[in-house]
Design a protein that fits this description.
6-stranded mixed sheet; 10 strands; about 290 residues; two-stranded antiparallel ribbon; elongated; alpha/beta
């Protein structure tokens, strides 16, 4: 894979350039190095040059100062290895998370990482240091280079575990294809009980629902019989796409609509993250959520 740090920096710099040229320029990441001055605090760290440019009092921020605590949860189960050609859901999510962490670092936000499938493989501490950033990059590279085979996911168990370990108000950002619960109403109820556990502790939750729109959402396959393989179980079935497309799309749409309704009920942001669309929507969704929290 390409150097994760370099790719993340390029994604973020391109995104910031785009913001400055768009109606969203108000999300300037100039506050990455500054915060507004609060009446009564010391004036020694005021940036007087920025005052001259903006007519506002800003204070320079330093390495140990943080604005927000963010936990990034990445589903590494085998279904995330789809598709088998081009960038898959796992790789897309890793690039997106690396880009978010680069943005967190610029903004002096503290961040941690949880990698999970049927159980949590790693839950790190939350820090904002450069050494922590590179440690997390290394963990992401391990996940990239060692995709899991025939491994299911258990989002519910992991969310309860994370909720039990996080004691300060944080932003929880989940990257998953959310397929664990798609055909099982009881599992869906269990999932939202786990999310309620997070919300009960006053955390803000953002779900990036990662998918291949072309194949998984639109079910766009050639008009010939295909051998479909369940990546998590290895189970195989041979079907003609045209014969099941309508029922597949209907069932999936119904599930996704139910998921969106539940998220709205619990005030959870759920964002479609199509791998074909790149990373800008991920970064923009985070900034919108962040601006509501600070």
């Amino acid at each position: 894979m390409a150097n994760l740090e370099l790719l993340a920096r390029q994604v973020v710099e391109g995104f910031i350039t785009g913001l400055h040229q768009s109606p969203f320029h108000g999300f300037s990441v100039e506050f990455a190095e500054h915060r507004l001055y609060n009446n009564g605090e010391s004036v020694k760290n005021i940036d007087w040059k920025l005052l001259a440019r903006t007519d506002k009092l800003f204070v320079k921020q330093f390495e140990e100062e943080t604005n927000l605590r963010c936990y990034l949860l990445l589903d590494t189960s085998s279904s995330m290895n789809f598709p088998d050609k081009g960038i898959n859901k796992l790789q897309f999510s890793i690039y997106a998370i690396a880009s978010l962490m680069h943005l967190f670092k610029k903004q002096r936000d503290a961040f941690g990482l949880c990698l999970f499938s049927d159980k949590a493989d790693i839950i790190t501490q939350v820090k904002s240091t450069t050494s922590h950033l590179f440690y997390l990059y290394a963990e992401l590279e391990k996940a990239y280079n060692n995709p899991k085979i025939n491994t299911a996911t258990n989002i519910t168990q992991v969310l309860h575990q994370v909720a039990g370990q996080i004691h300060q108000r944080s932003m929880i950002i989940l990257f998953s294809d959310m397929f664990e619960n798609s055909l099982n109403p009881e599992k869906m109820q269990s999932l939202f009980a786990a999310i309620q556990h997070l919300k009960y502790n006053k955390h803000e939750v953002v779900i990036f629902n990662v998918s291949d729109k072309h194949k998984e959402i639109d079910f766009n396959f050639d008009n010939r019989p295909h051998q479909f393989i369940d990546i998590e179980s290895g189970e195989q079935v041979r079907v003609h796409p045209n014969k099941i497309r309508e029922s597949y799309i209907s069932s999936l749409s119904q599930y996704r609509h139910q998921l969106e309704l539940k998220c709205a009920q619990y005030h959870i942001d759920i964002v479609d993250a199509y791998i074909e669309d790149g990373y800008n929507n991920v970064l923009k969704s985070y900034l919108i959520k962040r601006n509501k929290m600070i």
